[in-house]
Amino acid sequence: MARTKQQQREETMEALTATARRLFAEHGYGKVGLETIAQTAGVSKGALYHHFSSKAELFRHVLGVVQHDVGEQIARAADAAPDSWAGLLAGCRAFLAAATDPETQQIMLLDGPSVVGWQDWRELDAESSARHLAEALTGLMTEGALAKRPVEPLVRLLSGAMNEAAVWLAHSPDPKADLAATMDTLTPMIEALR
């Protein structure tokens, strides 16, 4: 059965995204060229340029996918918790655990801010992880489990602390042990908000 042009475009986009994600994670943004991405994905450079005008644009797309995936991990962890409070802590742990994954480290934490710029990186974070944090905090305030206060500054403070911890974990020689220590420190900080 013949594939439609739309199916071909989608397949090319998926191949480029998956290939670029793997290569950026393995080698870092600076060491991967567009020609390598196109060849590895099995598409022409023209097909790559049909979808992305530059390596930076392709990286931004990949970064958005990675951040979305991290956001989904957070949501799954929070939804699996027995209650909203445990869900908040599970979501925080899932975010910090993502920082111990080499792919996430390289794309989201090491290359991301420098390639797309801090402001764009923060906007992508706001669409994924920070959005889940805001929803969790708002829900806890509505339930009465958390004292009512302005949500936006609270999200910024907690998100900033966790982003800094995530970057630290990405550079840690022992991220698994440091993740446990980070959660041991973060949990009482969040508990103090009750």
Automatic annotation (TrEMBL):
Pfam families: TetR_C_41, TetR_N
GO molecular function ontology, one term from the record: DNA-binding transcription factor activity
Boundaries of every HTH tetR-type domain copy: 10-70
Entry keyword set: DNA-binding, Transcription, Transcription regulation
InterPro entries noted in UniProt: Homeodomain-like_sf, HTH-type_TetR-like_transc_reg, HTH_TetR, Rv0078-like_C
DNA-binding region, residue intervals: 33-52
Protein name from the UniProt record: TetR family transcriptional regulator
